[in-house]
Amino acid sequence: MISLIAFIVALLILVLPLLLQYLSERQSWNNGKCPACGEPWECFDMTSQGDLGYKCKNGHFMWMSYNFEKPHSENKLYKKES
């Protein structure tokens, strides 16, 4: 019984931060519009880890680990290695 409780606690410790990050980024994405001014987000950069940088016309920006816009393979910044 104790090992089951320990397993559940360990699972929560591993999964909870990922879930919170996902939900936070989804809220910031705001259906593709900047929450501060309402302008649409435009992708301007991608890190080597695949994180996407978005900015609006008014200079607000954000970095996202999860891509809510479209698959990386369809993103103009994505470079497929041969």
Task: Describe the model.
By secondary structure, the chain is α+β, with helices and mostly antiparallel strands. It has one domain (2-68). Helix content is 34%, strand content 16%. It is built from one helix and three strands. It has one helix at residues 2-29, and strands at residues 42-46, 52-55, 61-64. A three-stranded antiparallel β-sheet has the order 1-2-3, with helices on one face. β2 and β3 form a beta hairpin. The model has no long low-confidence stretch (mean pLDDT 83).
Topology:
Elements: H1 2-29, E1 42-46, E2 52-55, E3 61-64
Antiparallel strand pairs: 1-2, 2-3
Question: Percent of residues in beta strands?
Answer: 15-25%
Q: Tell me the radius of gyration.
A: 17 Å
Looking across the biggest beta sheet, what order are the strands in? 1-2-3
Using DSSP, what is the number of strands? 3
Please give the domain count: 1
* N-to-C CA distance: 50 Å
Oligomer state of the chains in this structure: single chain
Task: Compute the average pLDDT.
Answer: 83
Structural class by secondary-structure content? alpha+beta
| Biggest sheet character | 3 strands, antiparallel
Which shape, going by the Cα principal axes? elongated
Total of DSSP H or I helical runs spanning 4+ residues: 1
- The low-pLDDT segments are none
Task: List SSEs in N-to-C order.
Answer: HEEE
* Helix content class: 25-40%
